[in-house]
Amino acid sequence: MDKFYVKFLNMKNSNYIINGILLVAVIVLFILQFTGRKSNTKHLETEGLISDSTGFHLPIAYVQTDSLLSNYKFFKDLFESNIKKVEDKKLNINQRRERLANEIVKFQEKAQYNAFISDEKRMQEQTRLEGQQRDLENYITQVERELTLEQQKINQQLQDTIITALKQFNIPKKYEMILSNSGTDNILYADDLYDITNEVIEFLNARYVPPKK
């Protein structure tokens, strides 16, 4: 029975995906390239991409992904909704684990004092507890899978929403390329001139209609 209890404790202390899900992964870095723009000097001057004082400016821009996500209302709502689901699942798992742990302790005490009517009864109880442990392990695996799929769905939904919005955002801007930047993951250095994060945040939030509660 000691091996059985040790196995339960190992399961209790395992680091499974549920804890990681709370730290919602940052959306996949995206690079958008827009075409249909003439690259002559006159056109660039019209769009304000050449400054008389600073010289030539490339028709590109970048967005700070971390800042975008922390200020995008749609992402905040998705994040809060997802956390609620994760916390509910964790609470349910912890309650099941606690009930099983209590039953295991009671079983060990009865076995220690020979309180079972017969060895057959003791084996039946041990088999029942082992079955409950397997059920709990299977449930945890199922929850991990469900939450992972849900997170993937959210990431894809968020990415699709942002890309669709950026295409509309870029119609008047006419950037040839909009890059994403999270720390130094994608852009090691860029002049603040090319940072359009705040513009994009304002544009996204203006388009977002919160769901009715």
User: What portion of residues is helical?
Assistant: 55-70%
Q: Which regions contain 5 or more consecutive residues with pLDDT less than 50?
A: 13-53
Question: How many domains make up the 3D coordinates?
Answer: 1
**Rg measurement, Å:** 28 Å
Q: What is the number of beta strands?
A: 5
- How far apart the termini lie comes to 51 Å
Give the biggest sheet: 3 strands, mixed
Give an overview in words:
The protein is 63% helix and 8% strand. The chain is mainly alpha-helical and 213 residues long. The protein has one domain (2-207). A hairpin with a 3-residue loop joins strand 2 (50-51) and strand 3. Helix 4 packs parallel to helix 7, helix 5 (73-112) packs antiparallel against helix 6 (119-173) and helix 6 crosses helix 7.
Short descriptors:
single chain; two-stranded antiparallel ribbon; 7 helices; mainly alpha; rod-shaped; 213 residues
Task: Explain the layout of strands and helices.
Layout: H1 2-12, H2 17-21, E1 32-33, H3 41-46, E2 50-51, E3 55-56, E4 60-64, H4 65-71, H5 73-112, H6 119-173, E5 177-181, H7 197-207
Parallel strand pairs: 4-5
Antiparallel strand pairs: 1-5, 2-3
Helix pairs in contact: 4-7, 5-6, 6-7
Compact summary:
The protein is mainly α.
